[in-house]
Design goal:
CATH architecture of the largest domain: 3-Layer(aba) Sandwich
Largest sheet: 5 strands, parallel
Number of helices: 12
Strand order of the largest sheet: 3-2-1-4-5
Shape: globular
Number of strands: 5
Order of helices and strands: EHHEHHEHEEHHHHHHH
Oligomer: single chain
Distance between the termini: 28 Å
Strand content: 5-15%
Structural class: alpha/beta
Length: about 230
Amino acid sequence: MKTLIDMGTMSWHVTGQLLGDWKYTDDLYDSGALFCFDDQQGSIRKDNIKFYKATRELVTHTQSEMRRVARAWAREAFQRYKKQSVGVTGLEADDLLALHYEYGDTVCTSDKDALQLPGVKLIDCYGTPWGFERVQRKIASFNVSTPLRWLTYQAVYGDSTDGIPRLLPSFDRKTGVWIMTRDKPFRAALGLMPPQRFIDNLNCAVLPTPLYLDLDPVMYVIKRYTDDF
């Protein structure tokens, strides 16, 4: 079993001076952890789907400076830990987590998207375990306690953090409830959501993005979660 580190998340914690100097990440490196880095130059999702993270360009001066410092730290960290680091053009750190993990591995991240990865143990940057309870508390009316249920919720209701749009009209209070209360919510969503918009949302939300794998996102999801579909 190995540990994989989301260095995008880690860079923001270091930038906020929440983790101190290099000792913490040095210890992770010495333990054999794999460091996964965002591509800072481009995004395959943004190249194909214009709404993806579009709102992140609207930042304050303070946020822009923090982003600059975080990226500079990540570039230095990549060189420092190069022997145990991975980065791929157009991909984000969480895509690489999904590409390189195996069942039973530990994934260090605060990104709720990692909940869609079956069989991982999730910890935050301080080593504290977390899981579905984190999102379930916020969405108490729905069961989002499995990887596919959580992914279905993201695809239908969107994700404001990543600029992924809600597929339901604001006045529609019933369709989403009906989908998420089915035994097989992803199958239910397939029959009701606008096909291309649903595909776009999946291409943005699924880890790793099917755009990189050159796969149909619906078929990819069905294959990954066969037992739940």
